[in-house]
Amino acid sequence: xxxxxxxxxxxxxxxxxxxxxxxxxxxxxxxxxxxxxxxxxxxxxxxxxxxxxxxxxxxxxxxxxxxxxxxxxxxxxxxxxxxxxxxxxxxxxxxxxxxxxxxxxxxxxxxxxxxxxxxxxxxxxxxxxxxxxxxxxxxxxxxxxxxxxxxxxxxxxxxxxxxxxxxxxxxxxxxxxxxxxxxxxxxxxxxxxxxxxxxxxxxxxxxxxxxxxxxxxxxxxxxxxxxxxxxxxxxxxxxxxxxxxxxxxxxxxxxxxxxxxxxxxxxxxxxxxxxxxxxxxxxxxxxxxxxxxxxxxxxxxxxxxxxxxxxxxxxxxxxxxxxxxxxxxxxxxxxxxxxxxxxxxxxxxxxxxxxxxxxxxxxxxxxxxxxxxxxxxx
Length: 378
Hints:
Distance between the termini: 49 Å
Radius of gyration: 21 Å
CATH topology of the largest domain: Hypothetical protein af1432
Structural class: alpha+beta
Mean pLDDT: 88
């Protein structure tokens, strides 16, 4: 059963999620201990692909320590995706063994620390959209799977899905992919074929996870039935397909595309929140926002001092107060050495006012060398 409401504030209980699937005796015992009554949402109960158990993943390395392995994992996977794209263009099958190695490496990094790989991915120059979008979506999906406390196998599956669900776009005409402005009806119908192409490519590749091809067809389905290719609704899309749709949309909104300028992470979050229950599963949208925070890792933020910083790590208990590395002073000049602020500790901007974030800036709007991020901090 899906427990939607308690008879007391969620903050007075040990439950991590405001709304969760009741699936273990341990959860039931905790409910009995803290609550006399709960409200169950029948429509969300027993959804497709609901995980049987959840696993808590402690942070095993600080972001400063994990950034090195994260860089290696990201760099190797980026090279792999270039090879994947080249292989598809000339009709070759994908290298399942290398894909497995890449997904495992990224997953292990995120399980050790959920911020390092995401931070590195957001700070690198993006290059070709197909390559960078696949990498970013995969990393977001692995991170979200960790947050949802899914089993390691499920988290790795999300990593595969993020990398490969859009691989069929490589078969679309280049002028269609790079067209500026709105697509015509005919062009949009042609663009939608990339889903079928992805399914064909994945089905033709031995050694990939079972069911990957089927689920790769779901990331453009929408909760209200307005998506494609089948116009599925609600629970017909399933948990994994719904996760893919949310993450794919968030990343696409925040990067430059031929037909649209990027929006800031906070603006993209606001758009997802507005679309919850319409285009996307409301519960999963809310959990995704909790996962990445109001100020996602890698976000450029303007502080109340007019300084500019980069969010390098989340604060799990105080999502509005992340750790920030200041990279520009109030006049816009590079700050060397960088200044590290843990906003949860309320560092003072002035004698009477602590540092606080005014808002997020678009990714890439303030250029700097990310390799220096942890080398000159004080």
